[in-house]
Structure to design on (825 residues):
């Protein structure tokens, strides 16, 4: 009976052989995918598994290299987000595209306001917006409120109503429940039920096992840019899905882990910041501690809060038994912290300056202050040599170096200081394989020299290959700890199963 | 409780801002009325308003552009070039009102050039209009290296000096422009696009709005209002002077900012700009009457601008905190 129903529902969207590559990465490998009217089709996979790329291609944000997209039986190719929208595909991205300075009604009707002679018929506009919001159950949202003042859930409501106003037949949602409170999530599920009843097709990207099992009529699992399987609801339990997502071949070589951590160097208690909730952490000298978790789990924020870059609201940080003053980067550096930030281009380097200047500007500000030119050059040269930075000289612009060599400078500049704890945030992002190995070697060497190292990385094999121990974060909290010998599945299970 | 606080904030944040600016204006009037007995007279108010009219007129066009996160630094020289053009045409025998119309068209065309380069070629508006600031001044001097006084038709000064009942023409014109721009920003479809572009350009694009075309129209409007402000000003002065309006663009931008329009776009009101223009007008008029040296007026204007921005950000911050609690 159920099988008959499915056969009857022809797909409204079907994708075949979709491929997309970026320099150095095959983001999507010949993916097939389809969506039926009135269904919620969940996409699941690790960070970078390809689900976002698929969504972006369908939304017209990126163009596929190969493959066909059939929409209602006709082949389409979207050159722009507007083209996708006109074809009836709406996208509720995480960075919600509402205009803060306009009201709810104005946002919903933006671009298609009712009214004659260039005037907006405000009454008709409000009525139409009201009807659209009511149709998905947002009865209590006042259409005259300014969007800048809305909560995430309310902004989502505006986006959904606007999608309906644009006659969207397919609605893609990228982790819509992550910014929401529990009650709001319930509400979202009700809205989705209404959209299903109206025969809309819904593509739902999520990391949360619980909601995937609750919402997904079908689930497609991605791994390394390829589709692993498409399952019907109930065909696999959470553990089964996790197993499908992992199991990659190890291609990297990591330094052997025969380091011997010594005395405790860092003690963090009850650390709370904008997106960090009461974190306790201990780190020993000579130890590499990994922090795992999904994007948005609060890993970067934890490092930044320790470093004084994000606001510390509560809790204490002690280095070698001495408390570190809150909210002061100079104090953190003076105490012995160093940070390799997440975004190298925008946070790690000063692109227009030379290699030498990029390395030495921290030296001028902190211990060993105001070093003279000669010492500076000498120190920089030693670092370049020691870390094997491929550069024509200290005066070469750092932006003309490869990503890996830039990163070596960002990391290396700290080594001539009295650093005790190195905070590494995605140190190998955008770096080629060869440079990755060198960075692994440097990190290992630093640990052997007795520094404490905290490593955040979204690449699980890298994290597991390097660390002595790792903690898993979720929603700003530490939800578990695993030994460095843990399996990928254990880490993913901890990161995802705990998700609310 | 929470919704009440939010509601209060959403409805009143901008109205409150306008009220604060308005109270500052009233306070200044109060102070000047104590300093000089001539301040609170009908003739002084007519004079004050007439002097402020060009600022308010050009401020309307500037507000619209700044809401869309643009800026136009060329208004001072566009003003000069178009009035000199009108004067030269009038002296050459072109009927006066045709000369005025051509001058307005010239202003709009310069604005269009600004808009096309900014929106079409994606160049920073500051740089493009800074260039245009020089070009416009150059054109003004090329048309006439010195002020055109002789040969202007006798009715040249009509719009600057005439009045309807107790309202001088410049005020009538300013009120008309203000009314049109108020409708444009609050009640028209075009207005929604301006706020959308300034607040979130990507969202505007995704709503099917032609961002480039809208920007071009905005810069045209700004060039047009600058030219109109120029005609009002030079008709009152009774000449077509290429030296007119030097530094005018900064006064206009100051009026817009004092009026609560944000430099980062997406927010702003015509009413605020009008109050901002009046604050600047009252300040110079009042200081004059009080016998303060003109040089101090620059200092006072600068202080008011800085104070306005500080008060504005404090008010916003305070309200945000209140809304969160």
């Amino acid at each position: 009976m159920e099988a008959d129903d499915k056969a009857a529902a022809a797909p409204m969207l079907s994708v075949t052989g979709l491929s997309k590559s970026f320099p150095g990465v095959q983001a999507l490998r010949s993916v097939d995918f389809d969506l039926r009217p009135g269904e919620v089709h969940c996409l699941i996979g690790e960070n970078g598994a390809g689900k976002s790329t698929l969504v972006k291609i369908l939304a017209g944000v990126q163009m596929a290299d190969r493959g066909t997209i059939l929409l209602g039986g006709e082949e389409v190719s979207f050159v722009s987000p507007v083209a996708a929208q006109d074809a009836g595909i709406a996208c509720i991205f995480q960075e919600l595209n509402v205009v803060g300075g306009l009201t709810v009604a104005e946002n919903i009707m933006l671009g298609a306001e009712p009214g004659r002679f260039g005037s907006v018929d405000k009454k008709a506009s409000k009525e139409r917006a009201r009807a659209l919001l009511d149709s998905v159950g947002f009865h209590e949202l006042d259409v005259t409120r300014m969007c800048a003042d809305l909560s995430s859930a309310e902004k989502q409501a505006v986006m959904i109503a606007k999608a309906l106003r644009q006659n969207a037949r397919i609605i893609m949602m990228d982790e819509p429940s992550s910014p929401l409170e529990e009650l709001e999530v319930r509400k979202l599920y009700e809205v989705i039920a209404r959209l299903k009843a109206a025969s809309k097709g819904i593509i739902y990207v999520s990391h949360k096992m619980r909601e995937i099992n609750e919402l997904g009529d079908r689930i497609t699992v991605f791994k390394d840019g390829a589709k692993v399987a498409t399952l019907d609801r109930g065909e696999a339990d959470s553990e089964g899905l996790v197993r499908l997502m992992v199991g990659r071949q190890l291609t990297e070589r990591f330094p052997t882990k025969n380091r011997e951590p010594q005395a405790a160097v860092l003690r963090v208690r009850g650390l709370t910041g904008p997106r960090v909730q009461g974190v306790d952490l201990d780190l020993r000298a000579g130890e590499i501690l990994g922090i795992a978790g999904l994007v948005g789990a609060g890993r970067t924020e934890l490092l930044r809060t320790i470093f004084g870059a994000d606001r510390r609201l509560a809790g204490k940080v002690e280095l070698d038994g001495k408390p570190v003053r809150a909210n002061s980067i100079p104090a953190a550096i003076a105490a012995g912290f160093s940070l390799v930030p997440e975004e190298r281009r925008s946070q790690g380097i000063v692109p227009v300056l030379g290699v030498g200047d990029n390395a030495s500007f921290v030296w001028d500000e902190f211990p060993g202050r105001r070093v003279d030119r000669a010492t500076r050059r000498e120190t920089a040269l030693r670092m370049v040599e020691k870390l094997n930075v491929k550069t024509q000289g200290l005066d070469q612009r750092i932006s003309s170096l490869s990503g890996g060599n830039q990163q070596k400078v960002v990391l290396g500049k700290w080594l001539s200081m009295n650093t005790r704890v190195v905070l590494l945030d995605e140190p190998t992002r955008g770096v080629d394989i060869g440079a990755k190995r060198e960075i692994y070697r440097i990190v290992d060497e630093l640990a052997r020299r007795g520094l404490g190292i905290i490593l955040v990385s979204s690449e699980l094999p890298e994290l597991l290959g390097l660390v002595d121990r790792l903690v898993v974060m979720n929603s700003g909290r530490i939800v578990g700890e695993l030994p460095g010998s843990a399996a990928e599945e254990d880490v993913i299970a901890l990161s995802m199963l705990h998700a609310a | 409780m929470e919704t009440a606080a939010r509601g209060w904030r959403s409805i009143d944040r901008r109205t409150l801002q306008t009220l604060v600016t308005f109270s500052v204006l009233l306070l200044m009037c109060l102070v000047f009325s104590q300093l000089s007995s001539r301040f609170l007279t009908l003739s002084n108010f007519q004079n004050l308003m007439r002097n402020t009219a060009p600022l308010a007129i050009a401020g309307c066009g500037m507000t619209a552009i700044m809401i869309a996160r643009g800026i136009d630094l060329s208004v001072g020289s566009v003003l000069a070039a178009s009035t000199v053009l009108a004067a030269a045409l009038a002296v050459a025998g072109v009927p006066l009102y045709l000369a005025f119309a051509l001058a307005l068209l010239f202003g709009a065309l310069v604005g269009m050039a600004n808009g096309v380069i900014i929106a079409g070629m994606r160049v920073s508006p500051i740089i493009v209009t800074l260039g245009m600031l020089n070009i416009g001044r150059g054109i003004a001097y090329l048309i006439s290296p010195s002020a055109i006084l002789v040969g202007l038709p006798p009715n040249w000064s009509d719009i600057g000096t005439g009045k309807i009942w107790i309202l001088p023409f410049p005020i009538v014109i300013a009120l008309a422009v203000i009314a049109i721009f108020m409708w444009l920003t609050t009640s028209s479809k075009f207005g929604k696009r301006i706020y959308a572009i300034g607040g979130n350009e990507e969202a505007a694009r995704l709503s099917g709005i032609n961002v480039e075309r809208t920007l071009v129209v905005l810069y045209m409007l700004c060039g047009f209002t600058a030219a109109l402000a120029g005609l009002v000003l030079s008709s009152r002065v009774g000449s077509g002077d290429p030296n007119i309006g030097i530094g005018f663009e900064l006064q206009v931008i100051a009026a817009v900012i004092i009026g609560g329009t944000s430099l980062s776009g997406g927010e702003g009101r015509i009413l605020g700009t009008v109050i901002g223009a009046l604050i600047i007008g009252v300040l110079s008029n009042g200081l004059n009457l009080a016998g303060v040296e003109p040089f101090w007026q620059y200092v006072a204007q600068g202080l008011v601008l800085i104070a306005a921005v500080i008060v504005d950000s404090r008010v916003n911050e305070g309200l945000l905190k209140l809304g969160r609690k």
Notes: The first strand of chain A starts at residue 13 and ends at 22. Chain A touches chain B through 27 residues (CB under 8 Å). Chain A has two domains: 2-98+150-245, 264-497. Residues 264-497 of chain A form a domain with the Rossmann fold fold (CATH 3.40.50.300).
